[in-house]
Amino acid sequence: MTCKDARNLLNAYVDGELDSAGSLSLEGHVEQCELCLSEVEKLRTLASAIERGALRFKAPPHLKRNVQAAIRAANPGARRPFFGWRWAGALASMVFIVALTWAVTSQRIRSSEEAQLVSDVLSSHVRSMMANHITDVSSSDSHTVKPWFAGRLDYSPPARDLTEQGFRLIGGRLDYIDNRPVSALVYQRSQHFINLFVWPMKDNAISQEGQLSRQGYNIIHWNQSGMTYWLVSELNVPELSECARLLKQ
Amino acid sequence: MLDQNDLTDFNEAVLPHLDTAYNLARWLTRNDQDAEDVVQDASLRAFKYWKGFSGRDCRSWLLAIVRNSYYSWLRKQSIQPELTEDGAIDNVDDGLPNPETVLLQNLDREMLKSALEDLRVEFREAIVLREMEGLSYKEIADISGVPIGTVMSRLARARKQLQIHLTDASARKSL
Q1: Does the predicted TM-score (pTM) go above 0.80?
Q2: Rounded to whole angstroms, how far apart are CA atoms B53 and B61?
Q3: What is the spatial distance between Cα A95 and Cα A216, in angstroms, rounded to a whole number?
Q4: What mean pLDDT comes out for the span B17-33?
Q5: Portion 131-170 of B in contact with A at CB < 8 A
Q6: What DSSP string describes A12-59?
Q7: What is the 3-state secondary structure (H, E, C) of B38-91?
Q8: Most buried residue, A77, A110, B7, B25, by CB count within 10 Å?
Q9: Minimum Cα–Cα distance from B91: chain A residue
Q10: Could you tell me the end-to-end alpha-carbon distance of chain A, in angstroms, rounded to an integer?
């Protein structure tokens, strides 16, 4: 084996990736070649330095929970029993009662396309909460938020501040729903965040309005002036409906 | 529609590899929060394809998805991936022998970490999968979607760069 051949195999040798014949013949060379021997030593020193350095990152404890919650949110059929949720508690049971009453009285959104949209909108909302990435542009000034979208979308979303009415505009974010980039406007009421997704209606879009609740989140949907609106939050139904009413004005 | 059994199976098979997934994502993104986003996105994708997954190596499967999620995340951030240029092992110097080895033994963790973070992403990926996760060349090749020979040359070039970088850093420190 020439020194050049050996050089190309040193890494595989140190990594134990050579077959026994290759290994033997390389060892034969390394025993006689000081340069290759020193290369092998350096490779081993480096490997043990990386090992000693304990450079492996461990997933933070909340990541597992977040992943499971995101999967449940994105796959309504796969959710765990409601009362199994660790964070649920008393608050959730209240939401449950409200949501149940509401589910009976409100329109149900049934078609599969719509179900997919609901699931997209909901996961997008949940992700924005979990990933700590709720806004790309943070401002309560609609004159800041609106132009921010200008270069990023082929339409201009309404970005109205409703601070005086109790829903503070805190910013906007670019998201991807229904196979297109869409604007997400973010409002805050006390500690609750509200995502408003707006994009131009498709020709075949379902024109009906609707509201529903999924896993403790409330969703309100309507179409207006050629745009389709989806409002999502963990905020209670009356307050979220109030927000929708103000936005429709 | 996915049912509860799918979720249970998925949790049992995939979640044990969450640390490995996070470690790869963390080294690729070089940031805690971005790594979490990437792992979360990868997990959602993994669950989506769970039914079609026929049960070979679950860890490699998940890592390949993490890698894809990382590249999607890059695109979403409009960060151009660094251009790659795989070729023969370059810069094979004439091996200054022992002083280098001595310097390499005196490395501290921060130096190593920053040297690793400075590597090009595909080199970093190969080192993380090999040195921290102990994967074989074949497994790394499957995850990265390149031939085994490319894995070998990436590792060789990555280590060479690390040695050069670290020897310099260590020499500066001991001055």
Answers
A1: no
A2: 9
A3: 6
A4: 94
A5: 131-133, 136-137, 152, 155-156, 159, 162-163, 166
A6: HHHTT-S-HHHHHHHHHHHHH-HHHHHHHHHHHHHHHHHHHTT-PPPP
A7: HHHHHHHHHHHCHHHCCCCCHHHHHHHHHHHHHHHHHHHCCCCCCCCCCCCCCC
A8: B25
A9: A7
A10: 82
Give rounded-to-5 percent helix, strand, coil for chain A. 50, 20, 30
**pLDDT tens-digit map of A73-85:** 887 764 444 444 4
Count of CB pairs separated by less than 8 Å, A with B: 136
3-state secondary structure of A226: coil
Residues 4-23 of A with CB under 8 A from B: 7-8, 10-12, 15, 17
Q: Is the pLDDT at A187 greater than 60, yes or no?
A: yes
In the prediction, which pLDDT does B106 show? 61
Orientation angle between helical segments B32-48 and B4-14, nearest 10 degrees: 130
Cβ–Cβ of A71/B116 closer than 8 Å? no
3-state secondary structure of B93: coil
The beta strand positions in chain A, using DSSP E, are: 137-138, 168-177, 180-189, 192-200, 210-214, 217-224, 227-233
Which pLDDT value is given to residue A182?
92
Helix (H, G, I), strand (E, B), or coil: what is residue A213? strand
**Mean pLDDT in residue range A118-133:** 81
Write the ipTM. 0.82
Q: What is the pLDDT of residue B79?
A: 61
